[in-house]
Each structure stands twice: as C-alpha cells, then as structure tokens.
Amino acid sequence: DRLKKEFSEDLFKKRINKSFECTYGDYIFVYPNSTQDIKDEASMQSNCVASYIDRVLDGSCHIMFLRKKKNPEKSLVTIEISNNKIVQAKRKYNSEITDEDKKAIEYWNNKYKDKEEKIAWLKVTKLD
Predict the structure, then answer these.
(1) Using an 8 Å Cβ cutoff, are 3 and 39 in contact?
(2) Secondary structure of 57-115 in the HEC alphabet?
(3) Opening angle at CA 64, ends 59 and 70, nearest 5
(4) Would you put residue 109 in left (φ > 0), alpha (ψ -120 to 50) or beta?
(5) Cα–Cα distance for residue pair 53/107, rounded to 1 Å
(6) What is the pLDDT of residues 50-82, one digit of tens each?
(7) Closest of 53, 72, 64, 70 to residue 11, by C-alpha
C-alpha cells in the first residue's frame, strides 16, 4: 500500500522547490514539506497522488497543493507539475476544478512558463 510505503525524505527534501510557491487572489500554492504531506493529501482528497511520490523523487514531476490563504491546511486542489507547467489539477475524488481554480492555475502557468529558459539564459550571460 502506497500510504504505508517508506520513501527517502532526504531525497524528497532535495526535490522541494519552494520558488514554485506563490499566491493569487485568495489562493496559495503550497509545496509539500515531506512525502507524508503527499500521503495525507491522498487521504484527504481520496485520490492516487501518493502513487506520484516515486516520480517526484526521480525528478520527473512536482506535486503541489492549491489552498485558500485563510485555510492553508485544508486540502482543496491537488496539482501535478511537469516541465514548469501544471498538467493536472483535481479536487476531491478527482472531480473537476472550478472556474476560480482555473484562473489561479492559469496565473501560475503564465508566471512560471519561461522560468527554465530564463535561468539557462542567465547562466550563459554570467559567463561573459
């Protein structure tokens, strides 16, 4: 059972990208602090996000949570990020997100879509 499986917390901590955290309106994007946070999200949301932990550990995706600022502990939307883009976002029982959720996700995608290229470009210019 994935919820009982032990994962490398040291490796997970190396994968955490707090720079992906931001706010939009009354929403906040939260990066989990441990694999247990992802397991807890799976339980609260009745979804299979715990099955993504190995993918987070091998660097193929990030998992984040979209929450309300006034209640950041309460699970709202589970998000999968791949190549600096939110590729999946689901509410409890894998139900569809709301129009308001979509606006927050579009904001996040626009904010981070060029992040990788900008970082690469900065590295090149610093060599000069």
Answers:
(1) yes
(2) HCCCCEEEEEEECCECCCCCEEEEEECCEEEEEECHHHCCCCHHHHHHHHHHHHHHCCH
(3) 160
(4) alpha
(5) 25
(6) 999 999 999 999 999 999 999 999 999 999 999
(7) 53
Residue 105, phi then psi, degrees to nearest 5:
-65, -40
The neighbour count for residue 32, using CB atoms within 10 Å, is 20
How many angstroms separate the CA atoms of 31 and 13, rounded? 11
Token pair for residue 78?
């589970």
Its pTM stands at 0.84
Q: Let me know: does 80 contact 52? Beta carbons within 8 Å.
A: yes
Q: In the numeric block, which tokens belong to residue 121?
A: 């470009």
pLDDT, tens digit (0-9, with 9 covering 90-100), for 96-117? 999 999 999 999 999 998 765 5
Higher pLDDT, 6 or 1: 6
Helix (H, G, I), strand (E, B) or coil at 29: strand
Q: For residue 86, give the amino acid letter.
A: I
Structure tokens at 88: 């999946």
